[in-house]
Specification:
CATH architecture: Alpha-Beta Complex
Radius of gyration: 15 Å
CATH class: Alpha Beta
CATH topology: 50s Ribosomal Protein L17, Chain: A
Distance between the termini: 37 Å
Order of helices and strands: HEHHHEE
Shape: globular
Number of domains: 1
């Protein structure tokens, strides 16, 4: 039964899905704003927000966990500097803005960005 299993699968296997989420998160941290489908934006939002919350307290253990989840030390450093902007904020670091449909396949698009 699928009780409590609300994650999106995106038609991919587990490893491919994890790689997709990691890649989208890395792009979001580097650029600050990306355009993707609404489903992917909704799926990476909690993933990135948990990392920003972890990056707010800059310890060696937190940096190591960020490097493990993002796969690159320079991106983890950038995330820690971004997280410093949200010291007094209790969550809600990302904003999803819906856009029109994509021209090729009419997929529902959205922009996800840091607030």
């Amino acid at each position: 039964m699928r009780h409590g299993n609300v994650n999106r699968k995106f038609g991919r296997e587990r490893g491919q899905r994890k790689a997709l989420l990691k890649s989208l998160a890395r792009s979001l941290v580097l650029r600050g704003k990306i355009t993707t489908t609404i489903a992917k934006a909704k799926e990476i939002r909690p993933f990135v927000e948990k990392m920003v919350t972890r990056g707010r307290t800059d310890t060696v253990a937190n940096r190591r966990l960020l490097v493990a989840s993002l796969g690159d030390e320079t991106i983890a450093k950038k995330l820690v500097t971004v997280a410093k902007n949200y010291e007094g904020r209790a969550g809600g670091y990302l904003r999803i803005t819906k856009m029109g449909p994509r021209k090729g396949d009419a997929a529902h698009m959205a922009v996800i960005e840091f607030v």
